[in-house]
Amino acid sequence: MELSKDLVAASSSPLVLSILAEADSYGYAILRRVRELSDGQIEWTDGMLYPVLHRLERLGHIEARWEVAETGRQRKYYRLTDDGRRQMAEEQRQWQAVDAALRGIWGAQIAPTLARTLGEPAPTRHGRPSLA
Amino acid sequence: MELSKDLVAASSSPLVLSILAEADSYGYAILRRVRELSDGQIEWTDGMLYPVLHRLERLGHIEARWEVAETGRQRKYYRLTDDGRRQMAEEQRQWQAVDAALRGIWGAQIAPTLARTLGEPAPTRHGRPSLA
DNA sequence: TACTATACCTTGCGCCGCTATGTATTGCAA
DNA sequence: TTGCAATACATAGCGGCGCAAGGTATAGTA
Question: Which of these, A40, A77, A122, B93, is most buried using a 10 Å CB contact count?
C-alpha cells in the first residue's frame, strides 16, 4: 500500500522506537520488521530510514554501536535509551488520542462510508448547513 | 496535549474530510469539532487549519462557498466533493494499516511499557542482540 | 563472472506545520 | 462607551523532513 508522506513521517518514530523496545536491532532488520508487522502493507525504503535513525540518535532516544555479525558483516546496532523509552510512551499517548478522535467520527459513519464507496448516491446534505 | 507536528500533519486531512462528511462546515466550527471529538486533547490553531482547507480545496477534495450566518457574519462553508469522499476512504485505509502495525507491536509490550514508565528498571537487553 | 541481497550513507527538491501578524465584526461586561 | 474576548478570515517566513536518486562495499550464489 502506498502511504502518504505525512503518515510515514508520523509513524516512523513510534514504529522504530517500539521495535527497538523489543530488542536491539539494525537498519536492514528494522525494515524487515516493519514489513512483517504490517503484513507487507508498509514498505519503507532504506533512504528514509537512515535519516530517521540518525535523528533519533541525535535526539538521544537511541544509541548506536558497531558490531560484526556472525556473517562477518559490519552492522550498526541501535539500542533504546531511557529517554527513548519515555519518548515512545509519549508518542503512544499522542497516537492513541488522535486515533480515538478518528474512531469517534468514523464510528458514526462506517455504514454510510461503505455505502458511498460502493458507488451509491450520497445522502444530500446541502440545504441548511449544521450550525456546529 | 501537545501533539507532534508530524502527527498533526498526518491527521489534519483525514479529520477535516471526516468532519465535512458529517455535514458542511466552516473554519472556526471545524476547530471546535476537533476539540470536541478529542475531548479537548487536540487543540488546533486557526493558523494551521486555513492552509489545510486551502490545500484540500486546491486538490478538489472540498469546495467552498460564502454564506451569511444568522448572526450576520460572513462564513466560508466547505462541502466534501465526491473526490473528497474517495480520498477520505483511502486515508482511512492507510491510517488503519499503520494503526494495526502499532497495535501489533504495542500489544506485545503493554505490560512492560507500563512497568518501565513507572520507573522500574528495564530488563537488560544488551549482550546478544536479536538476529532479526 | 555476474547478479542479488545485504548493509550503510548523503544530497537536493518540494512540501507543509507553525508562529507571528494582520484585518474586521459581534457581543458582553465594566 | 470603552475595552476585551470570541468569532472569522487570511498570509509570510522558517525550519524540518520524507523521498527519490545515487553512491560504496561485501557476502553468497548461480
Answer: A77
Task: Identify the residue among B5, B42, B95, B114 best suited for mutation to test binding to A, counting A beta carbons within 10 A and taking the highest.
Answer: B95
- Mean pLDDT taken over chain A: 83
- Amino acid B3: pLDDT: 85
Angle (CA) A88 B6 A114, round 5°: 100
- In this complex, is the C-beta atom of B48 within 8 Å of any C-beta atom belonging to chain A? no
CA–CA dist B132, B129 (Å, integer): 9
CA B57 to chain centre: 18
Q: How confident is the model at residue A118 (pLDDT cuts 50, 70, 90)?
A: very low
Looking at per-residue pLDDT, the higher value among B123 and B7 belongs to B7
Residue A78 sits in a domain whose CATH number is 1.10.10.10
CA distance linking residue B47 with residue B51, whole number of Å = 7
Q: Does A128 touch chain B (CB under 8 A)?
A: no
Residue A64 φ then ψ, to 5°: -110, 150
Q: Which domain holds residue A71?
A: 5-117
Q: Is the dihedral of CA B52, A108, A102, B29 positive or negative?
A: positive
CB contact under 8 A, B126 and A7: no
Residue B2 per-residue DSSP state:
P
pLDDT above 70: percentage of residues in chain A = 83
Q: How many domains does chain A have?
A: 1
Asked whether residue A123 is assigned to any structural domain, the reply reads no
Of A29, A34, A38, the CB nearest to B100: A38
Q: Is the dihedral of CA A78, A81, A84, A88 positive or negative?
A: positive
Instruction: Give A83-100 pLDDT, tens digit per residue.
Output: 999 999 999 999 999 999
For residue B126, is it within any domain?
Answer: no
